[in-house]
Specification:
The chain is α/β, with parallel strands linked by helices and 254 residues long. It has one domain: Rossmann fold (3-Layer(aba) Sandwich). It contains seven helices and nine strands, in the order βαβαβαβαββαβαββα. The strands form three sheets. Strands 3-4-5-8-9 form a five-stranded mixed sheet, sandwiched between helices. Strands 1-2 form a two-stranded parallel ribbon. A hairpin with a 2-residue loop joins β8 and β9. The longest helix has 23 residues. It is globular and about 45 Å long.
Amino acid sequence: MLAGRGHTLVMACRNTAAALPVRDEIRRISGNDAVHVMELDLCSEASIRIFVENFRTRFPHLNVLVNNAGIITRYPDYTPDGFDTVIMTNYLGPYLLTRLLIPSLETGAPGRIINLTSGIYPFGTYRWDRINAYRWVKAYAVSKCLVLRATFALAGELQERGITVNAVDPGVINTSIMFTKKWYDALIHLILLPFYVSLEKGAETIAFLAGAGPELDATGHCFYKLGIKRVAQKHRDPKTLRDLTVRTRALLHL
């Protein structure tokens, strides 16, 4: 969608070999050759920092950052830095990336940050002393709750610096993210079937926020189906957001 509108895109991908054919297909369909691939593993703090250095070398500014990486795992798995892979991939890694790219977003102001949350976030209540101990769907819900709250915290912090920060709930996208390669995948599919939306519909709101003109200055919201979604006030509690920021920055040594 964005390539077709003539935007310059950087696909930040863990597996660049697998990403290159996708890049080529996007170029072919859109007729836009300004689609690039750069290596980024959100489970590695070192990879994130290297990516940011390389990005700054290649590009003078950043207008829009879309944090859309998301995984679910059934079993305990930890990064080299000691974090649960779901929490790191879905929340801590994108948070570190966002923080390090703020100077590039300021240069490209009005800059935009778009964070993907999920409709499952209300089930993501958490305790900080267990942040790396949650499993499967619960870990995913926790990560998406963290993403949503961090969106609100960053929106208040960055507004005066010419950067808007919003979240998007894309809906239940028809992908294999929830599947486990077990017998009950068929049951999961049947449960989710009435709620599925297509990849194109899921991407619609993201592309809308990323590609809209300067007249769209909304910040600190969660969007769903091109409109603003109501979020319980507890997710905007100032004390909760301050605590989230302090603890997250401490974990990432920011």
